[in-house]
Records
---
Amino acid sequence: MTVLQKKPTSPIDHLSPEDIEEIGRELDAIRAEFIEKRGASDAAYIRKVIDTQRKLELGSRAVLLFSLFPPAWFVGTAGLSVAKILENMEIGHNVMHGQWDWMRDPKIHSTTWEWDNASPAEQWKHSHNELHHNFTNVVGKDNDLGYGIMRVDEDQRWHPVYLAQPLWNFINACFFEYGIAAYDLELGRAIKKKLTKTPAFKAKLRATGRKIRRQVTKDYVVHPILSGPSFLHTITANFTANLVRNLWTHSVIMCGHFPEGVQTFEKHSIEGESKGEWYVRQMLGSANVSGSNAMHMMTGNLSFQIEHHLFPDLPSNRYKEIAPHVKDVFERYGLEYTTGSLVSQVASAWHKVIRLSLPNNFMGTNATPTPLPQREERPVAA
Amino acid sequence: MATTTFPTGDAWRPLALGRSIRDGARRLAELAATPLVPADYLDVFNPLRRGADLRGRVVSVTPETEDAATLVIKPGADWAGHIPGQYVRVGIDVDGVRLWRAYSLTHGPRADGHISITVKAVPEGKVSNHIVRDCRPGTLVHLEQAAGEFVLPPEGGKFLFVTAGSGITPVIGMLRNLFPVADSGAVRLERSADFDVTVVHVAPSEPHSIFIDNLRSLDEAGMIRLVARYDDEHGILDVDDLDELVPDLQERTTFACGPAGLLDALETHHAERGMTLLTEQFRVTPLVVGEGGTVSFLKNGTTLEATGDRPILEQAEEAGVLMPSGCRMGICYGCVLPMREGSVRDLRTGEITTAVEGDGVRIQTCINAAAGSCQIDH
């Protein structure tokens, strides 16, 4: 198959513009229902998670003071890995989305939160909340698609350099927090457009440098020194915890928008987009992960990626409850609710990375940009 | 200029050494806690410790009448104390949302270091109803230091208190401090020997009158003279009746706390007679919620008349205010700014968000329209 043999019909061909606006109204109603429900139990939930995470982190770091002893190293590293994942996913990501701003607690607020990650909150909020959530899966606009370094769609011209993309993707996964920091800096764009000397870019670079210096000092200098004779063991423990966190978060993020079945969109298809069309794009551009409650918690409820993309500012603990309502909308309008187990979604995403590292006619083709129905004037792909 | 890093004279002194060790330890703790601060971890274990943001823990909730209750609160270690008559701003989570209100402290300084406030549930009052009906011992509340000028001069004198309804709350704090109740009844302490107090207390009816038992027993013990007036029994108080109710009115300094109407009438009455009047009033006039309103940007200095059908963000930009912004559809939170006071309406849901003076509620300007006048800290 080649890229020219795209799917004969778009997955939303059967929907009229009125249907799409009705979907928008139905989703707005779901949102309103859960805003109405949001209250003391939600507030108690996030406080409990934060409280638990802090105790787990302190406890793990205390155990690692004796990381010279293998059991202490193992227990401390495992605990710290979980603490870092919780901090980044269920707490940091969601707080910075403004999911908890309604509590009016200045300590749990999108404007004041800083997370345990190389990228400064301010820059992450811009590239994630503003760009990625707005331009979800729009090729050329949503940098989360391949982070500007990968070929993510058949329509992107193949080049031999992409043969190495499975390797890039693996390296990016290992050092994901630095990948995010570079991406939030829009480093690639700045170099290409020769913006690296501008005061604005330099200021952002300094902020990132400061953040990374603090993070590195904490994990690789201060805590090791406090560990005394366990100095080196604490360094390896902290490195391992960061690695585990990076691999995990990278996998979760890949599951969100990369598995087969998730649609990408063309730049011009979102011009003058209505709220209903925006909702439909979020519905088709995201994929869920099924699993246990513990797994949902560890993904920061990004396992409910579809619900999160529809309602990015609703509290994460509610996504599970929202999901059946959303799924019902998918079913009634004949749309595909993409979901699968963590293993199958990660495998699917990796399969796509490998497939697209090769020219189009090597392996099966699948994802193609989806135009919204009233904009059928799709040009034949280059 | 000395270039040596060797500790100079001062640093060898135990005190200075202790301080530099403390500073070093603090710096180390900061490095170890980043991106949080050490306080974030300490708060998990002891939110009332010295150096923490000022908070308090509710020790007990005692009903006073069917719609009023007294909260005894253990304040954080940094509570600086108060003078009876002062108020404290309390931040309490109602349905998960932190709301701040000011309440009079209804005790003098207590031996156990606790503080108390008495709250009357007002119709539609989110916070007061929550405190009276749903607040439980153990709840963590947020506090500011006591404030207010509504206090008695320490040297004593002749005073008249005119209080209406929950306006008794700052006054009861003063009276309890002057005339503490021991097992044998109210005691006139040496320091209160020079206080001659008359209380004119107004309430809709006797059962609704908070602290009436305290006032009566003080009256019976001869500590104060109480004139209780109930609307259902005596009719609405006419301030001109004060001359009759309090024969030595002219010799007294008046402290009044109650609704605006009463305070205004008293002000006129006292001004005519050249008498001194001190008043205390908490906001009772609700913010007017409507369509559109005057939006003031406090730092920028711009004021504009905003309509109620379009986001504040757009209208402010049109007026030349440089606004933070992002997705412009309510999802990215790149445009949030603190609203000091006022009301806005969420254009998507119609939901109203209101900030009372000093609140600093953060609002998304891209999806909120003015619903009354608002002051934005930008």
---
Amino acid sequence: MPETRRSRLPWRRRAIPAKPRPLLEHGALPWLLAVAVATTLPHAEFLPRWLTLVCGAALAGRAWLWLKNGRLPRRWLLALVVIVGVAGIGWQYRALFGRDPGIALLVFFMALKPMEMSERRDGLAVVMLGFFLLLTHYFHSEDIATGAWFLASVLLLTATLLRMYGGAQPAREVFRYAALLIAQSLPFMLILFLLFPRVQGPLWGMPRDAYAGLSGLSDRMSPGSLDKLILSGEVAFRVQFDAGLPERTRLYWRGPSFDSYDGRVWRASFLSTSAAERKPARIEAAEASAVDYTITLEAHDRRWLLALDLPLLLPGEATLAPTLEVLANRPVRYRARFAFRSALDYTANREEDPRLLRQALHLPHGFNPRSRELAEAWQREFSDAEKISAAALHLFRTEKFFYTLQPPLLGENAVDEFLFETRRGFCEHYASAYVALMRAAGVPARVVTGYQGGELNPVDDTLTVYQSDAHAWAEIWLEGRGWRRVDPTAAVVPSRIERGIDAALPEGESLPALMRFESAWLVHLRSLRYRWEAINNAWDQWVLGYDRQRQHETLARLGMKDADWQSMFLTMMAASGGILLLIVCRMLFRRSKPVPEVRLWCRFCARLESFGIRRAPWEGPLDLASRAALESPELAPLVRRAAGHFAELRYGGGRRDHLRDLRDCVKDLASFRPCRPGGKPAGEKPC
Amino acid sequence: MDLTEFFDAAAQRMFGRDDERLPIVLDRHRVFILPTGAGVLYCVVLLTMLIGAINYNLSLGHALVFLLTGLGLVAMVHTFRNLFDLSITPGRAEPVFAGETALFTLHVDNRRQEARRSLEFSFGRNRRVLLDIPAGERASVAVPFVTARRGRLEPGRVTLASHYPLGLFRAWASPLLPMSCLVYPKPVDAPLPTHSSSQKNSGRLGKSGREDFSGLRERQPNDSPRHIAWKAVARDFDHRPLLIKQFDGGADEELWLDWNLAPDGRDVEARLSILAGWVLAAERERCRYGLRLPGRSIAPDHGPAHRDACLAALALHA
């Protein structure tokens, strides 16, 4: 007693040691190493080479130490490595904060942490860091493969926690249990994904490197700016037409147009983008040529949207620029969906702002004298602008022009050299030369960039437009008829417009094979590829493109019209609560049904109790039978029979008829009447 | 008192219920559950990840966070289930000397079709022991309690806790089991009293008790390995249990271990310790000995049962 009393004093209480922290089991380490590898590996490709090597070496070294049961390195050595590594990362990225250096630091810590693990909570730290690193994978890619990796990694991390907290057990069982846990949490994921009120990010200013690596059209056109884009296999946007697909030759997706030329680079003039004193564009179009469609545009960090030439109805958050391209209110930084209505036959800006027309006639002085001369000759010869244009196209068509993505370099008088010497180039060369000729001949003209064509996937009827469909064409303004599209490339290689860029390219010059399967020998794979593309599209639309707008549409379709965030939140809570309740009921309050023979035997024993024979918990059937024979001889044959059947069913190779016999025994016992008072008090059941 | 103990005590105070019917079944009134430190950390990590996913508009990031949220909820149910519906029957606890560790045996029945893993049993701050029980089976576990003083030890509530499967939650139950264990006084090595107030000749026995071989008997767990008849065992090792050589001698000599013989000037506990040491020594010397305490005496005898009776008398001495 004295000890206890003393231990209540506060300063003595501390002397009693608390329970020691649980240590990390030796057998749990391979799991944690696997976690470290699985969560850092996808980053390897984006990290500086030296960091990848250091991390790989650290993990391999830890695995070796584990195998050899070796000593872990000393703390000061680890601290030194950490300091050097962090300094290296800081030097590499010129920063320690921000997205990429942050990821590099996390990967580095993840690789080094196993070197100093001894307690279970160190293992926990690795797993938590692993969860976080999983998230950072999605900065690089969010495709289906990443999704699969995501599920596999969560399975591994869950299994690792199971192993850490559950002790040694066969790996198969660990994975099976982990799979069960994840399967049970999938409904929650679905509900939360569907109903969690989506907020359009960012919540705060994004680091400057957040949108690095987005590709798309540029805000200027200089020689060679488009060919890099054309060689890229990335998707630019996908289109779903409400009705049928228009003819391929009319699929001009209008991007930025350029009306300012300095002899080398085409740019948008101040006039074409300024919102001030803008006259609204006047587009006259026949309703018959109108098409409705929805574009899912990939992020490209620019304001322009790619509408079919020319848009009649715009999505709410966009406006039509004076030069007829559609501009969103802010740069497109996330995959987004826009609904349009466009007219394929139109008359645009019959009356044009004279300043714009003046801009569309401007040519820098002192460049390209030969083409100027030619154009002026045309101007004298033909009074009509259309005839001048036809003459220019005739020139492209009849002279020996080649379509190639590898044109020779052009010098100072780029248009002259292209028209009279090299004669090799692709859309930007043709458009640029044509517009220069038109301007020299006194016809207002401008360059329009965008995409032409696209590829229809028959599986889900989606038109996919790749970056390689990037195109440049021209527009001329005709008195009284407004702007009209002219595509000089089509004059040279009609197949570019009719069948796509691959058809236009000469032999031996082609796009990467993976991008264009149709290069002859893989034709039979095309349907497979279309299917895969369709799945990818669905993934992009429904998983990656699930934003606020999508959410509202989906919920409206599910019957929640105009859901605000409160009602969404409440529904989400209610639904998750329901699922949780279901799981609780299934797991906690569902007793497993005993096998039939046990159920029958229990019923038999329960009835036997009314005859004063109570089965002790430890008593086997045969023991009970022999005891019953002593206590109540007239019951003995019945009990012996039942016990025999039960024992045969339970412990022998019992058959179906034993079960029937046992059931009969239970019935017999129910109808049994003791005929002479003796074994039990006779009062209850008179015979 | 750390946080865990605080929550244990608080939960017991607020919702605890003592139903002394055996076996004790851990129903939903007995099992408590709270997130652990790891669980709180998990929450913080998830929140951070959610903010990151929103900020960078990562759709897969949202999916990841939501899946992990579901995983946390499911883990809660599974942790609860790991304890739920266990049935506990107290077993026996062998007497120990003060300062030694008493082991309380518990029989735990898993009546469900799922295995239970990593159940932690402990008494207060005593060391915890882990137990796995396969589906539908019964397992026994010896839960240690470090004794401090003699007497009848009632260990109080046993804490049954589980962090399995993910360590994010701790489910626990603290049933009060009707168990006790006799704690003998800590024996002090002291020379046996040479002179005694015994009626017959004094009980110093020397070596005679070890030399008169009287026969063989089967070995009991308590026997000294020195007395094993190795030769007899070696003759027929496969078919015969270990045998013990039995010796006679000294049986007719009686020794009284008297409270008053213990050195004066010590407190009660010290005297009891000395007496306990004497009992052990006398038993080792294989003589007949009796115990005389104020208000109680035990007639001379020998053998383990007698020794235990003497020690129990010492343990329970008021």
